[in-house]
Every structure is written in structure tokens, then in C-alpha cells.
Amino acid sequence: MDSLTHIALGACLGEAFSGRTVGRKALLWGIVAQSIPDIDFIASSCMDTPSALLAHRGFTHSILFAIIITTIMASLANRWHRRHNISYSYWLFFFAVAILSHLFLDTFNNYGVGLLEPFQHSRISFNTLYVADPFFSTAPGIAMVMLLALKQKNIRRKFWWKFGLGISGLYLCYCVINKSIIDSDVKNIFARESIHYTRYFTTPAPLQNWLWFVVAGNDSGYYTGYRSVFDHTNKLHLEYFPRNAFLLDSVRNKKEVQQLISFSQQFYTIEKREDTLVFNDLRFGQVIGWQDPKEEFAFHYYLYPPIDNRLVVQRGRFAKWNNESLQTFFQRIKGD
Fold it and tell me: Does one domain contain both 123 and 46?
């Protein structure tokens, strides 16, 4: 999830666990605990882009890191709040919940989380929730503001932390149901149209959970399309993108290429734009693919010649959004 969402959820968790005992300091502890796995940005800022992509949500999003940092933070909190008579085991439980919930939520995004680092390098991703979904984040955001505004002994504080955590939790369950609907519909369509694939995923289009981006294919190439939970037809418009892996022949042994392939989890295509060789990671969708199914992919990395790749994950994500693309976006959400 985005950083602001983690901050808001952390504040709600802090209030839930020890707000009545340590006051607003509980919100601060929750915010720090929910945010600390994203400390990897410090190291990744000193790396080249491919290395930074693999470092983010790597070790600091692992179970091992969660165990280590939970122990450290519990020890610090126990020492600083001894006069509040809160047991060390209670602090351990609080920080474990706060930090592990961060890892748990991030697995629902399409970036992937290295839960088993450093022993196993595969990423876990359920592709269920867009990384910045205002429908998920609004309730905990409002709750955090209210918790900061209300006095410590105000009885309404309990309502607000429950509101922030409860509404976001219910929305997450709703998103899981939406994904189940989409996957069932898409797989039935593929079976009916005899479309064979060895790799497949669906993930929400930006900022919501009703319109989904679909990718299916193999080493030869991938079909992409969009499906709304409100679609009533048994058809799915698909666009085919050849993988063009042969274009990597001259650069395949380069470290950056191997890192990009690993990061993409094999969901990639290669294209040549005049004299430029481009690596596309399909997991992050297209710029405005619901309007133009042949649109470029949001994640495209310039292999040659070297061009600025620092914002590669969200390069041009909203560059072509305008009134027309927004209207088609909302129309597509409504369904066919």
C-alpha cells in the first residue's frame, strides 16, 4: 500500500492497542511500526534502478525482518513506558500485529513481497488491491484525523479506530470477492474460446476495484484485456503482444536484464522503438488501455540506449489521462 495508508492504519492500530494508556504516543508507535518495513527506500535510493526494484519490498518485508524489528521495538517501548505498567509480551503482540499487517496488506498489491527473504527470493502477490486505492484508504484517513483531534479520554475514540480498521477490512474482503468473480469469468471465457496459457493474472486498474486488467500467455507472448465486475457479456476483447525475447540476444547476459526478468516474474515483452530497446513489465498495466488496447505499458525500461529510468514503475501512469480518458474509464467500469 502507499505510505499515507500505512500511516493512517498504524495510527488506528496504535489507538486500538494502547491509546487509553499512553495517549497520542500510541498513535506514533503505530505509525512507526506500520511504516518501518518501507525503510528499504534508504538503501534503494543508492542503487541502480534494477537493483532498487528488487530491493524494495525485499528483506525489510520478510518474516525474518518482522521478527527482528518487533523484538527491538517492543524492548524500546517497554523501557520508555515502564510507568504505564504494560507488559513486554503485550508490546511484542502489538508490534507483531502492526508490522505483519503491513506485510500482509502489501501482498495484495501487484508489486510482490519477499516474505521468505533471504532464504527464498520469490515474491508473493495476490493482485487484489491497487497500491493506492482511495476507497480503501479514506476510512482510516478520516479516523486518524479524528483521533488526533479528540482528547485522550473522549469516549468516541473507540468508535473511530474501529471505523478506520473495520471499513478498510470490509473493503478488502469485498475486493477478494471481486477478484474471484473476475477470475471465474475470465477463465470461463478462455476455456470457451480455446485460449491456452501457462501464465495468468488479473489485477485492478488504477484507483478502484471494479475494472480489472487481464494478462494471459506463455513464452511466445501475452493476451491483455479489461474486464469489469459489471460486465454482462461472455466476451472479452483481447490484444496480443508478442514477447520478442529474441531481441534480448545481444544483452541477455547483462546484470540489469537478468534483474528485470526476475523482477517481472516472466510477465514481460520486448519491443524496439526505432533505435530504442524497451523492456515492458506487464504486471503494472497500460497507461490508458481501456481506451486504446494497444497503448504502451506503464512500466517500460529503456535497455538501449540508456535513458532516465528512475520512475520506471509508474512512468507516465497518468500522463494521458484527460476528460475523454476519464469518461471512457467510468463507462468501462459500468460494464458491457
Answer: yes
The C-alpha atoms of residue 203 and residue 208 are separated, in whole angstroms, by 11
Question: Is residue 197 in a domain?
Answer: yes
Range of the domain at 303: 193-334
Evaluate whether residue 188 is within a structural domain: no
Rounded Cα–Cα distance for residues 202 and 94 (Å):
34
pTM for the model stands at 0.94
pLDDT in the model for residue 275:
87
- At residue 312, does pLDDT exceed 80? no
Mean pLDDT of 294-305: 90
Q: CA-to-CA distance for 304 and 87, rounded, in angstroms?
A: 57
- Residues 175-188: tens digit of each pLDDT: 999 999 999 999 99
Euclidean distance between CA atoms 20 and 131, whole angstroms: 32
Positive/negative CA dihedral, 133, 134, 139, 144: positive
pLDDT at 42: 86
DSSP state of 4: H
3-state DSSP of 297-310: EEEEEEEECCCCCC
What cell numbers appear for 100 in the block? 505483519
What is the C-alpha to C-alpha distance for residues 176 and 187, in angstroms, rounded to an integer?
Answer: 16
CA angle 127, 256, 39 (to 5 degrees): 55
Element (H, E) at 184: helix 157-192
Cβ contacts of residue 110 below 8 Å, gap of 6+? 125, 127, 131, 201, 203, 283, 284
SS3 label, residue 73 = helix
